[in-house]
């Protein structure tokens, strides 16, 4: 995907994703805390800041000094948590593991599906391209 993104570096919470042994995994939804640190967002009702663009080892995350590249505007790949009913133009929200699923009313929208690789039938675990729309409600 050769789209333009607005990315910003954010400090990663030292207990990112409850100190998961996976560390930071790319193409997942993240939220920001009141101190400006990012953490995995797996809750539909919580607004996502954007999509993390890189993997960071758990050991580096635990230092409290890791900085992650977060896409906050533009079109980004994102991990699909639940593929049910996702088509071009679908509004998506954060879900299990920081992936996305079809947005439901009153939940925080992460973005709108604008790219489905090879126009194939989607499955959980695939990647889709979304136009980031943080702060919107379904």
Give the helix/strand layout.
Elements: E1 5-11, H1 16-19, E2 29-32, E3 38-40, E4 50-52, H2 58-62, E5 67-79, E6 91-94, E7 100-102, E8 108-115, E9 127-137
Antiparallel strand pairs: 1-5, 2-3, 2-4, 4-5, 5-9, 6-7, 6-8, 8-9
What does this structure look like?
With 138 residues, the chain is mostly beta strands. The protein has 2 domains: 69 residues, no CATH class; 64 residues, no CATH class. The chain is 7% helix and 41% strand. It is built from 2 helices and 9 strands. Strands 1, 2, 3, 4, 5, 6, 7, 8 and 9 form a 9-stranded antiparallel β-sheet that branches. Strand 2 and strand 3 form a beta hairpin. The longest helix has 5 residues. The chain is globular.
Determine the structural class based on helices, strands and strand pairing: mainly beta
Can you tell me the number of structural domains?
2
Mean pLDDT across all amino acids: 92
SSE order: EHEEEHEEEEE
The shape is globular
The main pleated sheet reads as: 9 strands, antiparallel
Low-pLDDT residue intervals, each spanning 5 or more residues: none
Rg over CA atoms:
14 Å
Could you give the count of β-strands? 9
Counting DSSP H or I runs of 4 or more residues, the number of helices is: 2
Can you tag this structure with a few keywords?
2 helices, mainly beta, globular, single chain, 138 residues, 9 strands, 9-stranded antiparallel sheet
């Amino acid at each position: 995907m050769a789209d333009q993104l607005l990315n910003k570096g954010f400090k990663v919470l030292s207990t990112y994703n409850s100190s998961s042994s996976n560390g930071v995994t790319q193409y997942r939804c993240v939220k920001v805390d009141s101190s400006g640190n990012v953490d995995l967002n797996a809750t539909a009702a919580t607004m996502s800041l954007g999509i993390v663009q890189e993997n960071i080892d758990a050991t580096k995350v635990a230092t409290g000094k890791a900085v992650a590249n977060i896409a906050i505007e533009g079109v980004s790949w994102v991990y699909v948590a639940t593929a049910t009913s996702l088509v071009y133009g679908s509004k998506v929200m954060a879900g299990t593991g920081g992936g996305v699923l079809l947005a439901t009313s009153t939940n925080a929208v992460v973005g709108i599906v604008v790219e489905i690789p090879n126009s194939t039938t989607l499955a959980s675990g695939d990647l889709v391209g979304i136009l980031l729309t943080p702060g919107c409600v379904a």
